[in-house]
Each structure stands twice: as structure tokens, then as C-alpha cells.
Amino acid sequence: MATLSNNPVTARAHTNIALIKYWGKKDDTLIIPYTSSLSLTLDQFYTDTTVQFDASRSTDQLIIDNQISSEQPLHRVSNFLDIVRRKAQINSPAIVNSHNHVPTAAGLASSASAFAALAAAASKAAGLNLTLSELSRLARRGSGSACRSIFGGFAEWQRGEDDLTSYAMPLKAAALLEDIRVVALTVERGPKAISSRQGMHLSVTTSPYYPTWVKTCQTDLTQLKLAIEKNNFAKFGKISELNAMRMHALTLSADPDFTYFNGQTLTIMNLVKQLRHNGVACYYTIDAGPNVKVLCQKASVAKVVDTFSQLLGKQNVIVAKPGPGIQYL
Hints:
Layout: E1 9-20, E2 25-27, E3 32-33, E4 37-53, E5 61-64, E6 67-68, H1 71-88, E7 94-101, H2 110-125, H3 132-140, E8 154-158, E9 167-170, H4 174-179, E10 180-185, H5 196-206, H6 210-229, H7 233-252, H8 263-277, E11 282-285, E12 292-297, H9 301-312, E13 317-320, E14 327-328
Parallel strand pairs: 5-7
Antiparallel strand pairs: 1-4, 1-14, 2-3, 4-7, 4-8, 5-6, 8-9, 10-12, 10-13, 11-12
């Protein structure tokens, strides 16, 4: 049995951007994916979460950005805390206080940072002393992509076959990490109409191209890891952009079809291609939302920022560097 901490524990986790996408679960309960994936953790977007277990309480309480949370988010967090409680062999309810420094449910991986921070804070507050691999496995149970936010820089989520074998691990890539920048473009801040979970389920169950996606993803992952190893930014960017479009092709071929893009998303995609045609090495990637992330090198940041600040306004253009893994505050 773990030794329960009487003190609150605060952890910070940063969002990650998937370069080889995770899109679809073969086990919805354990969140085991059909494909492995690879991401980059970003320094500008993060979640701070404080957890304190309190035996005198009757129920869990969730506070997000100073607002007591509604029933649905609380239910999801309580289910996750139940996993922690079972591991620690405790029964105490908890107070969870979370602050998001990233728009929620807009395709900027807020759930990844949220559940990575929750996993770290809750496990330590419950008296568990988990390794990073164990913490990654735990975070996965809250949100699949959260398993990658345990680590800084590049992280590969190995799909595995069960709870024990599905977790993320860091990649060594010092040269490319020094030079890469991600310009995050926000075109919409509100929650998306179709959640990632809904979108994945529709794509897996109705797109006739899903089996091909699974095969292609493995090839893309192998090629991207090689590009990282060789410090080949052009190849890195091309594969990342292509894999993103292959993922979104699944949404367009689902029944009913749907898309996370809006008009400005398409405008940005075309502008990135124009910049590239004019000699600026940059590529886009898009998760489950309309917001776009532009991958570029330090030398191209000013041009990319200037181009999209004119289109979207400076407040919607943020330059991110590779970010750190889990931190305890």
C-alpha cells in the first residue's frame, strides 16, 4: 500500500503535437491504439494541476480555471482517479485544481497536457513513486496522447498490444531539436463540434481506407525517425505534412463524412505551400481541430510569423520551441 501524502502535489505538463498521428483505438477502455505515433512537446502550451486526497471529503471535486467543473468532465476525471486509487490501494476522494494555458478542445492537445499533469500530480499525491514509463502508461488511460506529454522533445508512443506494452518513450534528436520551431496559428478557440473520440470512432468503423492508414502510418513513422536521425528537416517536414493529410482523409471518407477544417484552415495550408514555393522551408500539420501548426527552422521564423500575423493578427500567432517533460512545481 502506498503512503498517502497529506499535502497537495502540483505538476506541469506541456502539450504535444503529433507528427505521426494517433487516430483510432482498438481498445477503447485501455486506450490501446491501432498505430504507433510520434510527437513533439511544445514549450508554450501547458497545464498546471494540483491534487490533494482528503479522506474527510465525500466526493471528488474538479476545478478548471477557477470554475467548479460540470458533471461530464468530473466523471471522466473521477474515473481516472479511480485507477490511481486502485494502484495506491486508497479510497480517499480528491480535490483537483487545474489551470489550462492552452485553448480547450480546439485541436491544440489540451487533453494531453491535462491528463499528463493529472497523472503526475495524482500518482505522487497518492503516494505512488512511478517510473516515467509507468507514468506514461497511466496518463494514457486518461487520454491517449497524454502518454507522450510525459516526455520533452520528440516522443514515440509504441502502440503495444496491452496495458503493459503501450506507452511512450523519448527519442534522442539533439540536432533537429535545436533548430526546429512550431508556429501555432489559432483560427478558432471554441470547442470543436466533433470530439476526437467521436471522430476516431467514426473513422475506424466507417472509412473504407482505415486498414490502409494503419499500414501507411508504420511506413511514415519509420521514415520520420530516419529524417530525425539524419537531421533532414525537408524530409521531416514533408512526412509530417503528408501524414496529417492522410489522417484527415479518413474524416472525409467516413460515413457521415466530416472535417475539422474551416475556411481559414484551407487558406493557411495554401499560404504555407506558397511560402515553400518561394524558398521558405515550412510545412503544416493539423490535429483534430481547425488550428494549424507550421513547422519551420529558426532562420525562417520571422518570415512565417510576419506572413500569418498579417492574416490572423499577432495575438493568434505563437512561436513555440521544443518543450520539457513532466515538472513538479
